[in-house]
Amino acid sequence: MPRASARHILVKTETEALQLKEQIEGGADFAELAKKHSSCPSARNGGDLGSFGPGQMVAEFDQVVFSAPVGAVQGPVQTQFGMHLVEVTSRED
């Protein structure tokens, strides 16, 4: 069964997500931005969600995590929780 590890930043608006993505692309540290801006409890761990399999996260999130390149920041991805920036840190197919 596939497994992936990922980290994310959860914010309320697409605008905020895009601003944070721009900062990351400019060299800002993903984990530090997650700690400062993410509304998910994972923020205290730099947005790290650990390892999980398909179906353990909401569908929109799963779709990105199990198809996006490892190490590239994806998003904003909209779910019922808000807007996410997602980085797949590892994946085993």
**Shape annotation:** globular
Number of helices: 3
Q: What's the total count of β strands?
A: 4
- Unreliable runs, pLDDT <50, ≥5 residues? none
Summarize the biggest pleated sheet.
Answer: 4 strands, antiparallel
State the separation between the terminal residues, measured CA to CA: 7 Å
Return Rg in Å: 12 Å
Mean pLDDT: 97
Sketch the topology as an H/E string, one letter per element: EHHEHEE
Spatial arrangement of strands, main beta sheet:
2-1-4-3
Which structural class is indicated by helix and strand composition? alpha+beta
Classify the beta-strand content into a percent band.
25-35%
Helix coverage percent: 25-40%
Domain PpiC: 1-90
Function: PPIases accelerate the folding of proteins. It prefers amino acid residues with hydrophobic side chains like leucine and phenylalanine in the P1 position of the peptides substrates.
GO molecular function: isomerase activity
Subcellular location: Cytoplasm
Commentary on this structure:
It is globular and about 35 Å long. It starts with a strand and ends with a strand. The protein has helices at 14-25, 30-37, 59-65; strands spanning 3-11, 48-52, 73-79, 82-92. Helices cover 29% and strands 34% of the residues. Strand 3 (73-79) and strand 4 (82-92) form a beta hairpin. The protein is of the alpha+beta class and 93 residues long. It contains three helices and four strands. Strands 2-1-4-3 form a four-stranded antiparallel beta sheet. The mean pLDDT is 97.
